[in-house]
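Input.
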Amino acid sequence: MTQQTAVEWLVEQIKSDQNQKALSASEWLQVFEQAKQMEKEQKIKLAEQYVERCQAPIRQSKWLEENS
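Output.
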């Protein structure tokens, strides 16, 4: 199962609202704030994964040096 992006989640919320009921302005503000928080968390996770992948070869190299 693929992870849903903040934008995909927001689009689902908009579609759902069109099919069911109209949200108030304050409710939509909450929805947008939630989407922004999701996006922030996704960016942090992506950055952490990038750093981890960049550090993996360095750790491997140090291990090889220590165990040679």
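The chain has a mean pLDDT of 83.
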